[in-house]
Design a protein that fits this description.
This protein has helices spanning 6-14, 23-34, 54-57, 105-110, 132-140, 179-187, 201-223, 228-253, 271-287, 303-308, 312-333, 387-397, 417-420; strands spanning 42-48, 60-63, 66-68, 83-89, 114-117, 122-125, 149-151, 293-297, 340-346, 360-365, 376-379. The chain has 421 residues and is an alpha/beta fold. It has a seven-stranded mixed sheet with strand order 7-8-1-9-10-4-11, sandwiched between helices. A two-stranded antiparallel sheet has the order 2-3. A two-stranded antiparallel ribbon has the order 5-6. It is globular. Residues 1-6, 12-39 and 190-201 have low confidence and may be disordered.
Length: 421
């Protein structure tokens, strides 16, 4: 338990830094009350395949915050007040696009200069930082069992470029191909014994409040010995203590995460069943802090249906959003709704074979406890702000405040303030 001595308190007051001296203590209190040793936020990407045409995507919009969801996006309806649809993100067409073939999530998340078939070989230049899920995961997940998780139900990618997550050029990050593989590798040697009790945040709050009460008592003793300037600083410090007490109370009142192994999946499952099982595994892995970043390709492959503009394109996209909503819903049930972002997109955007110069989209579920403005449609300017700047915003929201550029340096201008500002 951290301890603030009378000498440290006086030194802090004398330096005029009474508020800042207490921040490390507050950080320790919050982590202890949560029972966490690592970052608290969770980030999950979910991807479809081969486009999400406008007739199935676009809401009926009256104003940015007054809209009706498209029937094909109805799985998101329970979370309408917690979602943001961001549209018209841009990324330039690069060599190797091959009419849209082979430009799977790797280029979408990595924003490299080449991806796909170049005419002589497969190009997998995703960028030196790799994909944004790996970039963020490696930075915040050093103490996690997995710095990030990658799921691709249905087996190994068909093409060399079809991996979702990459650590850099020609460095694909392995994905879990089956639910059983994911279960065995993620939850093998589980970190919690069966029936492990949850963290008693109420008891921890009482313990930490006793330290606050002691500190307040010391302040009263000191008050009669201080001159007017020091008394003013002391008053500010007392205010900061009350703010700490409020934060601790909020932590103790938050839902307790029930961390347990999910059901073990069958060895053989149909593709849609496999996706649904991996959604369960991803949700519990994130909830248990085994990782804080996840990326998943949910398919199914509807390539020919896109060419034919078949009705199944709409139903396929609806099913994909069902899985996205299921993942966010499970995190909410586990008490992590205010600390999680779940994003859905399609690396082919709105038009099959539309190329990477079209306007891209993201459905974002979650508001990070009020940090993001939700329940809105965010239409970006016709100039199409760079997709990499959206990823800068995500990195900043995940606690990486030093990240100011991502993707192609000549295009990245910094965080997309329309989203996160």
């Amino acid at each position: 338990m951290p301890f603030v001595s009378r000498r440290s308190l006086l030194r802090g007051l004398a330096l005029g830094a009474s508020t800042s001296m207490f921040r490390p203590l507050l950080k320790e209190f919050i982590r202890e009350a949560r029972g966490e040793a690592g970052p608290a936020k969770r980030l999950a990407f979910v991807f479809g395949q081969y486009s999400f045409p406008r007739k199935y995507m676009d809401p009926k919009i009256r104003t940015a915050t007054d809209f009706d969801l498209n029937p094909a996006t109805s799985p998101l309806a329970p979370f309408k007040s917690e979602l943001t649809l961001i549209r018209n993100l841009g990324a330039p067409q690069g060599p190797g696009a091959n009419g849209g073939h082979g430009q799977d999530e790797g280029v979408y998340l990595g924003l490299g200069t080449q991806f796909g078939w170049t005419g002589s070989d497969w190009a997998t230049n995703v960028g030196k930082d790799g994909t944004i899920d790996r970039f963020i995961g490696k930075r915040i997940g050093a103490s996690d069992k997995f710095s990030s998780l990658s799921f691709r139900p249905g087996g190994r990618p068909l093409l060399p470029v079809d991996y979702t997550s990459w650590d850099g050029d020609d460095q694909p990050y392995p994905a879990f191909a089956t639910p059983l593989d994911a279960y065995d590798k993620i939850f093998g040697g589980a970190m919690l014994p069966p029936g492990a009790p949850p963290v008693d945040t109420t008891a921890l709050l009482k313990q930490d409040q006793s330290l606050l009460d002691f500190t307040v008592g010391e302040i009263k003793v000191l008050e009669s010995r201080l001159a007017a300037p020091e008394k003013e600083k002391l008053g500010k410090f007392t205010e900061s203590l009350r703010a700490v007490e409020k934060k601790l109370t909020a932590v103790a009142m938050a839902p307790v995460v029930s961390c347990e192994n999910p059901a073990k999946p069958a060895a053989t499952l149909a593709r849609q069943q496999a996706v649904e099982a991996q959604v369960d595994i991803a949700a519990m892995a994130l909830a248990c802090g085994l990782s804080h970043v996840s990326a998943m390709n949910v398919g199914p492959d509807n390539h020919d249906a896109n060419h034919e503009d078949a009705p199944s394109v709409g139903t396929d996209n609806t099913w994909r959003l069902q899985q996205t909503a299921k993942l966010f819903g499970k995190l909410k049930e586990l008490g992590l709704g205010d600390s999680s972002l779940v994003l859905y997109s399609d690396s082919n955007g709105l038009d099959h074979h539309g190329g990477r110069d079209q306007g891209y989209f993201y459905w974002v579920l979650g508001g990070l406890g009020g940090r993001l403005k939700t329940g809105r449609i965010l239409d970006l300017p016709a100039s199409r702000p760079y997709l990499g700047d959206f990823y800068v915003s995500l990195a900043n929201l995940m606690g990486l405040q030093d990240v100011s550029r991502f993707g192609l340096p000549e295009l990245s201008k910094g965080a997309l303030t329309a989203f996160s500002g």
